[in-house]
């Protein structure tokens, strides 16, 4: 899986490198996309916004998303994408990589859940159609990966005799460390402006 | 027409590829479970009794009850034993030893005899030389709240600890709410309802002509007065005759409602705190405590202390105590048969309390130790609050407040109420 993601990123970078410097005339561009995430768990939605610069057939920017799949998170990532042709309707490739950010977790009197952020990667193919005023309508489909760590603890209090427990009173007495790796197919629709 | 057909075919092809690929996707969870395995350490009852003596001092880890007598503070370590602390100089208390008593929860003293529970037994321990405590006698199977001994007469006295780590990898299943597994020590103890009064051990010695008793904290379930040891269980009060210090004898057991928590002696009376109210017993005949009055309240945890005119009761809500209000109730004892509420004061999370003349000390949990001027009970005046501690019980006498806190045994000099000083602390070490 990681090899495939690495290959995708390398291919994208080679394409970026091949851009002729004489066409370099960067302009601001932004994206708003919404999509569905389809995997072995329940299908969920993803909403993202990306902002960066566009030069010739290429775009690079930073983005953030709300990813509701399995454990809600906020991926923050770098996005690189390139059009295959210099036409009004063209396929494109894209790749995103960054951090999968989660909230700190929850704590009650007896239990505690801690989340630690992980990796977010996504890449795929799309098709874009130029609309009026430098706006394009984008469709994309790709593979999306995110991971995170969940640590679970709980406290045990002394019970009155005869239910005596040897576990020290009030201490977090068990730790379950879970690393989740979540793989999804993503289908998105959005606009680029 | 042809164009739309081509687009439709592409979309269908794309969706088909995705559907096939979806089968290759699997959400995984790589789990590391960190367990601590507690293996019971067994001893026979005889072994335990033979080994009851003063051991070298141990660190206080989980303090429970506090008891003071003759310049010594006795701090019970939850279910483990008793720390003996020489408190002749409260500014420099000396931890002199530890008496290993598995399952011990409560203590009380008369003269130089320490009475302590161990499972269902009452022990009489000679502490005339605190560095050389000796078990003198025991009364078997007298505490109904405790488990009976295991069938092979082996008792769990400790647990050896071993950490274990287990790795596993599995599918991340859909979230349907967390499942928590609670510790189960693997053994269910049988419940004893034995009322027996078997006695064993050494014969007693004669008591001094004027007995002296110590002072227990308000959370105590044991108290000694009038040549008797009174103990309360969840639903009963037991009376032991301790005229002969080293030879306690069971006298009687009185049934009480469920939820009995604490016992506090004052002159000719016992004040028993329960989750549903305060019961007042006359001990003019100490062998037959006679309930003469009661004051009911909503279900709460409630230690009680009293003086000639008033009883002070803290009510703590939350958890097993029920409800969520926290307050101090002041009761008039003008009529002991019908105590009446004078006033309630809001508190945050009260535990034990103590009264010394007009000064009322209240352990208010996370809000610290609060000291009130109680000269006018209709208008208690907060004189001082000691913060940064989580006090659970307090004994205030002769200008020194001995406080069991979440951090250890703290002692304060309150001779000048406007300038309370920390005298010493013996800190918990885990």
H/I helix tally of chain A = 1
From the alpha carbons, calculate the radius of gyration of chain A and give it in angstroms. 22 Å
Major sheet of chain B, described briefly?
A: 6 strands, antiparallel
Top-tier CATH class of chain A: Mainly Beta
Relative helix content of chain B: under 10%
- What is the CATH third-level topology name of chain A? Porin
What characteristic shape of chain A results from the CA principal axes?
A: elongated
The parts of chain B where pLDDT drops under 50 for at least 5 residues are 176-208
Strand content of chain B: over 45%
Domain tally of chain A? 1
Give me a quick take on this structure.
The complex is a heterodimer of chains A (193) and B (430). Chain A contains one helix and ten strands, in the order αββββββββββ.
């Amino acid at each position: 899986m990681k090899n495939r993601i690495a290959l995708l990123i390398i291919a994208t970078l080679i394409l970026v490198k091949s851009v002729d410097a004489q066409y370099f005339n960067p302009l601001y561009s932004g994206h708003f996309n919404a999509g569905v995430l389809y995997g072995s768990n329940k299908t969920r939605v993803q909403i993202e916004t990306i902002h960066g610069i566009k030069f010739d057939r290429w775009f690079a920017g930073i983005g953030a998303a709300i990813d509701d799949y399995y454990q809600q998170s906020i991926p923050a990532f770098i996005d690189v994408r390139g059009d295959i042709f210099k036409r009004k309707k063209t396929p494109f490739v894209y790749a995103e990589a960054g951090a999968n950010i989660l909230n700190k977790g929850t704590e009650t009197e007896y239990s505690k859940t801690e989340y630690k952020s992980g990796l977010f990667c996504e890449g795929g193919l799309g098709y874009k159609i130029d609309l009026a005023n430098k706006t394009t309508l984008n469709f994309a489909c790709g593979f999306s990966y995110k991971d995170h760590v969940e640590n679970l603890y709980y406290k045990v209090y002394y019970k009155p005799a005869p239910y005596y427990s040897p576990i020290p009173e009030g201490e977090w007495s068990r730790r379950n460390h879970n690393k989740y790796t979540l793989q999804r197919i993503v289908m998105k629709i959005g606009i680029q402006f | 027409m042809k164009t739309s057909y081509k687009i439709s075919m592409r979309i269908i092809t794309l969706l088909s590829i995705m559907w096939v690929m979806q089968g290759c996707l699997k959400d995984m969870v790589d789990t590391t479970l960190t367990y601590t395995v507690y293996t019971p350490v067994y001893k026979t009852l005889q072994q335990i009794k033979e080994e009851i003596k003063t051991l070298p001092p141990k660190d206080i880890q989980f303090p429970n009850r506090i008891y003071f007598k003759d310049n010594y503070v006795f701090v019970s370590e939850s279910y483990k034993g008793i720390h003996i602390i020489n408190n002749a100089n409260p500014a420099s208390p000396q931890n002199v030893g530890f008496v290993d008593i598995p399952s011990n929860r409560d203590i009380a003293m008369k003269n130089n005899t320490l009475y302590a529970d161990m499972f269902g037994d009452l022990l009489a321990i000679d502490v005339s030389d605190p560095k050389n405590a000796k078990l003198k006698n025991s009364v078997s199977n007298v505490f109904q709240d405790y488990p009976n001994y295991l069938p092979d007469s082996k008792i769990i006295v400790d647990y050896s600890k071993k950490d274990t780590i287990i790795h596993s990898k599995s599918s991340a299943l859909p979230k349907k709410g967390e499942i928590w597994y609670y510790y189960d020590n693997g053994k269910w103890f049988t419940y004893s309802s034995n009322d027996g009064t078997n006695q064993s051990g050494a014969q007693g010695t004669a008591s001094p002509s004027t007995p002296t008793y110590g002072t227990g904290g308000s959370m105590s379930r044991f108290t000694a007065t009038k040549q008797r040891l009174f103990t309360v269980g969840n639903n009963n009060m037991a009376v032991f005759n301790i005229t002969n210090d080293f030879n306690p004898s069971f006298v009687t057991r009185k049934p009480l409602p469920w939820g009995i928590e604490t016992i506090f002696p004052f002159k000719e009376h016992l004040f028993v705190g329960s989750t549903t109210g305060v019961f007042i017993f006359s001990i003019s005949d100490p062998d037959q405590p006679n309930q003469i009055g009661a004051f009911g309240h909503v279900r709460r945890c409630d230690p009680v202390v009293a003086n000639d005119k008033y009883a002070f009761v803290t009510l703590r809500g939350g958890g097993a105590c029920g409800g969520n209000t926290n307050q101090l109730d002041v009761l008039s004892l003008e009529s002991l048969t019908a105590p009446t509420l004078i006033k309630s004061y809001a508190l945050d999370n009260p535990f034990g309390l103590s009264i010394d003349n007009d000064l009322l000390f209240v352990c208010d949990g996370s809000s610290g130790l609060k000291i009130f001027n109680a000269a006018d009970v209709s208008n208690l005046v907060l004189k001082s609050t000691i913060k940064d501690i989580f006090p659970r019980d307090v004994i205030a006498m002769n200008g020194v407040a001995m406080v069991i806190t979440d951090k250890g045994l703290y002692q304060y000099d309150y001779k000048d109420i406007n300038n309370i000083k920390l005298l010493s602390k013996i800190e918990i070490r885990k």
